[in-house]
Write a structure and sequence with these properties.
Helices cover about 30% and strands about 30% of the residues. The chain is of the alpha+beta class and about 375 residues long. It has 2 domains: about 160 residues, FAD/NAD(P)-binding domain; about 150 residues, D-Amino Acid Oxidase, subunit A, domain 2 (D-Amino Acid Oxidase, Chain A, domain 2, 2-Layer Sandwich), CATH 3.30.9. The strands form 4 sheets. Strands 1, 2, 9, 10, 11, 12, 19 and 20 form an 8-stranded mixed β-sheet that branches. Strands 13, 15, 16, 17 and 18 form a 5-stranded antiparallel β-sheet that branches. It has a 4-stranded mixed β-sheet with strand order 6-7-5-14. Helix 1 packs parallel to helix 5, helix 1 runs parallel beside helix 8 and helix 2 packs across helix 8. The model has no long low-confidence stretch (mean pLDDT about 95).
């Protein structure tokens, strides 16, 4: 039976960043396995591609700390490796007095988290930046931006391969058995052939499948909720120059239906939030009125007939519909399964935080 020192399960943005981080030391002793035919086919390719600054998350949470660190790292990686990005800035807009008070709370939270450059804008100052946006006030985040996440993932893959990492696509993990020490992993390959191998350390970056694999290893694991987010694109010239977000809903249940501009200048709105029992990537065109009503609160001149169903993504959330804020889980599962590193609930800001998450796991492994 083939043996590896470390196995990473899942080649999304986090698994790839982690492989790139560990590969220089582990070389051929590192294996990255992915059930899909290529990298980033699930959550990592179905999102807004926004680089978050770290404003929203509670002080001392992993989401806050790793987002702020990851934001700096993402921009540095893009500059050093000629990956497209734009630090276009974000407006978080208040359309009521209560939301205006909340913007000040967000600014203080962001500053506490280490986010630089946050500025409260008056209605007139906001209108100067975005003439079409209706706002009593706005919080401007100059370090928020967008990135070519596909080529960032490609960079991480290439860095890992160059250092000697074995990458196995179309390889699904069907069972994990503790060997004390280490683990035996049962697999199904591209030709439906079954095989197994052993690994001293297993890092579970499987996203939507992370809870199932954790259970398979005999670990008591919190529930992962499938949180569906749909997007509608805008047909026509974008009437915005920045990312525009509403004041977020209370309870930490998403950031509201916001406006993002991709690197090609295309405007897209979303995601909304629907909890579902199974992954479902269809976009229901009947949700257009729901989207239009949410968008018109801050963009009243929107022509809703220009909203076109675009895509949907599924986020692996630890936070259920009635739950308070839930942080990332990044931990070694001792004493149940020493050597098993779980990454659970890695939703937004997972893209931004990916390089910092890789550092966090490397520190757990003392690598």
């Amino acid at each position: 039976m083939e043996k590896f020192e470390v196995t990473i399960i899942g080649a999304g943005i986090v698994g790839l960043a982690l492989a790139a981080r560990l590969a220089p030391k582990l070389k051929a002793e590192l294996l990255l396995v992915e059930q899909e035919e290529g990298f980033g086919r699930e959550t990592s390719s179905r999102n807004s591609e926004v680089v978050h600054a770290g404003i929203y998350y509670p002080e001392n949470s992993l989401k806050a700390r790793l987002c702020v660190s990851g934001c700096r790292r993402i921009y540095q990686l893009c500059r050093e490796n000629d990956i497209a990005y734009q630090r276009i800035g974000k407006l978080i807009v208040a359309t009521s007095s209560a939301e205006e008070i909340f913007l000040e709370e967000l600014r203080q939270r962001g500053r506490t988290n280490g986010v630089a450059g946050l500025k409260l804008l008056s209605a007139a100052e906001s209108k100067t930046l975005e003439p079409q946006v209706k706002a009593q006030a706005a919080l401007f985040s100059p370090n928020s931006g967008i990135v070519d996440s596909h080529n960032l993932m490609r960079l991480f893959q290439q860095q890992a391969k160059t250092a000697g990492t074995t990458i196995a696509f179309h390889t699904g993990i069907t069972a994990i058995r503790p060997l004390h020490p280490g683990f035996q992993l049962e697999c199904s390959g591209p030709d439906q052939d079954n095989f197994s191998f052993s690994s001293k350390i297993v890092i579970n970056c499987a996203g939507l499948n992370a809870a199932r694999l954790s259970h398979s290893a005999g670990i008591l694991t919190p529930t992962i909720h499938y949180a569906k987010g749909s997007y509608f694109s805008y047909s026509g010239t974008a009437p915005l120059a920045h990312l525009v977000y509403p004041a977020p809903p209370t309870g930490g249940h998403g950031l509201g239906i916001h406006a993002t501009i991709d690197l090609g200048g295309r405007l897209r709105f979303g995601p909304d939030l629907e909890y579902c029992d199974e992954p479902d990537y269809t976009v229901n065109a009947d949700r257009r009125p729901h989207f239009a009503a949410a968008i018109k609160r801050y963009l009243p001149g929107l022509d809703e007939n220009r909203l076109v169903p675009d895509m949907a993504g599924i986020r692996p959330r630890l936070q259920g519909p009635d739950d308070p804020f839930s942080d990332f889980i990044i931990r070694e599962e001792t004493p149940e399964a020493p050597g098993f590193i779980n990454l659970l609930g890695i939703e937004s800001p997972g893209l931004t935080a990916a390089p910092a998450i890789a550092d966090e796991v490397a520190a757990l492994l003392d690598l």
